[in-house]
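Entry 14. Two folds queued back to back today. First construct below, sequence then C-alpha cells.
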Amino acid sequence: MSVDTTSADVCARFQNAIAASPTASEETIGLSVSGGGDSIALMHLAARLRDPKRLRVLTVDHGLRPEAQQEIALVASQAADLNIDHAVMPWTWDGQGNLQAAARARRWAAVSAWAAMHNMREVWLGHTEDDQVETVLMRLARGSGIDGLTAMYPLSERDDLRILRPLLGCARADLRHWLQSNKIPWCEDPSNDDPRFDRVRARQMFAQLEGLGLTRKRLLQTIDHMQAAHLSLQIAAHGFARQHVRQDAGDLLCDPPALDLQKADAPRRVMAAAFAWVGSRTYRPRFEQLLDTVARARKGMTVTLAGCIMTPEPNGIVRLTREAAATAATRRPTPKPDMTGAFWDHRWFLEGPVQDSLTFKALGDGIMECPNWRDSGMPRTSLLASPSVWEGDVVIAAPLAGLSNGWSARIVADFHSTAFAIED
C-alpha cells in the first residue's frame, strides 16, 4: 500500500485502481459526488478514463447547511460540462440519533436506490488515503478487532452493489494539487473542521501521533496486515460453516459447535454472518447481544435478534429463521415487457406471471390460504416469513407453502457462497 503520492501520478494511480473493477467499459457506473475536493476529483478523473455517457452522478442534499445549494450547483454545472447525467436526492434529518451516522446511512440508501433505478451494478466513491487513516484511528479508539481495523477495501460489495474506491491510494493533498493544476474548483465543507465530529478529532489527533512515530506509512501497513489476517479468518470461518451450518431454504440450521461462542473466532464469525444473512442486513449484531441471544437459545428458549428468530430443535441444533414482522413489502407498478419477476428481502427472487400492481411480501396470515403447507416439511414459523405474491388482499402465490399458481421462489445468494465473500 503506497504512502507517498504526487500529483504527477494521480491519473496513473486512478487508472490502476479502476483496472481492478470487473465492470465492462460499456456498462454504466454511478459516482457519488458531494462537491468536496475528493469527489470532484473522482468525477473529473472518471470522465477522463470512461465514456461520460456511461457515467451517472448523484448528489445527496442533506439540507443541513445553507452552503449545500452552492455545492449542488457546482456539481451540476461541472457534470453538465462533462456531459454526465446528474441527479439530486434530498434528505431531512429527523433529529434522532447520531447526525453523521444518520447521514451516512441515508447517503447509502439513496445511492443504492438510485443505482437500482438505473440498473447500475457498480458505484465509485471518493474515499482517499486520508479517510483510510482516519477510519483506522477512530476504530482503534473504539477498541475494534481485526475486522474493524481492516478499514476500507478498494473493491467491496454491499446490498448486491459493487463499490470501488479508486482514490484510496491517493492523499487528499495530492488530489487538491491535481485539481488546482487543472483549474478545477471545489467546495470546502466547514464541518470538516468541526471538532464535535469523531472524524475531525481523529484528523487533528493524527498530527500529534506522527510525532510519536505512528506515521501514515505505519498505519497503512497495519491496515494491510489486518486485511490479510481478516482474509485468513474468513477462509477458516467459511470451512467451519460448511461443517456445522446447513441451509434449509431461507433458514439456517446450526449445529452445537457453531453455537459455542465462548472462545474460538470461527463460531463467533459464523454466527454473526448467519444473523446478517438471514436478517438481510449489512451489519452484524453487536457482540454482547449475539452472545446473550445464542446462550439463551442453547438453553432451550426461542429468542429474537436483528430480524431473526432462533428456535431450538432436537440434538442441540438451533434453527435461525427470518422474522416475518421484520420484513417489508415490495410493490411493482405496471411491469416492463421483459420483467419475469421481482427481488424481495434482498435474498429471494420470485418468478412467474407478472401482472399490474402486484405486491411481494412475507406470507404471514396468508398461510391460512395454503391448505397444503404442512407438505412442505418446513416449520410454520419459517413459512410465515417465506416470500409470497399478493394482489390487493388476496394471496396469489406462496411457492414454499405449496401454493404456486405458476410462481417459483429461489434464494439468489446462498449463505455459504456469499456470507464470507469467498467463492466455493
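Second construct, same run, same settings:
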Amino acid sequence: MRSLGFKVFNVPEVASIFINGGGIKFSSITEDEVYVFQLNLIKTMMVLEDAFYNIASSTGQPSVIISDRGTMDPAAYMSRDQWQVVLDESKWNLVDLRDRRYDAVLHLVTAALGAEKFYTTENNTARTETLTQAQELDQKILNAWIGHPELKIIDNSTDFQGKMTRITNTICQVVGAPRPAGTRRKFIATDVDINTIKAAGVDRVEQFQVEQTYLTPYSPSESSPETNFQYLRRRGQKDSFSYTHHSQKSYDNNRSIFLSRAISGRDYLTLLKQADPARVTVTKDVKYFIWNNTYFELENYKVPNIGLSSLVVETDQPAEVIEFPPFIKVKGEVTSEPAFFSYSLAKTFKNNPSANWKYNEQLLQKYLVAKMSWMRRAKVQENTK
C-alpha cells in the first residue's frame, strides 16, 4: 500500500497485550473476570483506533488504518447473555460497533481450517487453542461480523503468498486503488424468511432495511450512466442507521473504480438535496448469512415493489463452482445485465413503482435468456455427475 502512495497505520492487538501483561489464563478465570476483560478490551480498542484515526487524519495524506482485531471479536468469547449486558450497560449497539467503525472487515480464516499442517500457537504466547478449538472459535468470530456490508472472507484455498495477495487486492478494492476487482455476482432468486434459513442449519442471519438514493449524474453528457453513478445508502437495523456515499466511475479498458465512504447523518441530509429526480429511492430488505464459508446477501425489493428478489455474492469463481444454499431457488444470473441494476430499476419504475417486473418486456426477455442459460448449466452439471 505504501508503494501506491498510502500511509499505513497498524493498530496492535490489545488482547495479547492484556494476556501477556497480566498472565491471564482463560481456562482458569471466572465469568465475571471474562466480562471485565472483554469490556475493557473493547474500550481500549476503541481508544487506540480513534487515536490512530486522528493521527492519520492530521497527516493530510491518503491513509489506511489496519486493526488486528475489531470491536465485535469479543462477542465470540462470551455467552450471548454476557454480550447483551456489555451492549446494554455501555449503551452500545451493533450498528455502531460493527458497521460504522470499519469500512471493511477482512476475516482471515485460521490455518486450522484448510491448512491444518501449518497451524501453530508457537508464534503467539497468548494463543493456547487446540486445532478443534481454533476451528470453533474461527466460526464464532466470523458469525459475530455477519451483517457488515463489506465482510470479506479470505480462506486457505491458496498458499500463504496467494492469501497475502488476496488481502492486498481486497484492501485496494476498498480504497479504490488499481488492482483486480472482485466480481459481485447477482442472481434472480426466490425470497425466503429468516426462519427458513435458520432451519437449514444457518446459525446467524442479520436483516437490514437498505435505502439507496441515486444522485444527479456526474455530467449531463455521461456516455455510460450504468457504470458512472453515485448514490447514498441509509442502512438500518433496530432503529439504528449508518450512512455511506458510494460512487463508481469507469475508465480505460472498461474497468471501473468503486468507492464508498462513511458519512454523518447531517451530511446525508445535505447530499439528499442532490437526489436524481428521474429515479425513485430504492428500498430493499436484505438478509446476510454465510453458507459453506461464502457470504451471501438475499435482497427483496420493497420500493419499487416489483416482486423481485436477488441473491448476491462477491466471488471470482465461476457460477459453476459456487455452492448455492439449497433452500433458495436460483433462477438465472443477471450480473452483466444493466437493466437489473438497482440504478436502472430506480428509473424504469419511477412512475409505476408497483408494477410487477415480469410485465416489463425488456426485463422479461433478458430474464428468459438468463433462465435458459441457467437451465442448460444445471443439465450439464447433472449429466457430469
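Quick look at the second one. The chain has a mean pLDDT of 88. The chain is about 35% helix and 25% strand.
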